[in-house]
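Fill in residues.
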């Protein structure tokens, strides 16, 4: 019976982690979102889905994979960050 008890304990622990992972974080907006991305861009090593979820625009699946709600994340990001490069006026026009 010891093995059975361990499986039950492990299952409860996994269920707790899954339920915590599925809790939506507060969506960062405006300057808060821009500041968060600037401060943490290296932390995620190019993993945009995890960055999106950690900024409050998605959740983690039961297996722990990030699921980004892409459209609202990009919409807020585009209003929060000036996407135009300060050097874009120096570039020749596209032909």
């Amino acid at each position: 019976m010891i093995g059975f008890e361990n499986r039950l304990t492990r299952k409860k622990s996994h269920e707790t982690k899954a339920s915590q992972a599925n809790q939506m974080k507060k969506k960062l907006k405006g300057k808060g979102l821009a500041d968060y991305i600037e401060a943490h861009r290296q932390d995620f090593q190019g993993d945009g889905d995890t960055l999106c979820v950690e900024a409050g625009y998605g959740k983690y699946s039961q297996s722990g994979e990030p699921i980004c709600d892409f459209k609202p994340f990009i919409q807020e990001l585009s209003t929060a960050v000036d996407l135009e490069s300060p050097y874009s006026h120096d570039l020749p026009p596209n032909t």
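The chain has four helices and two strands.
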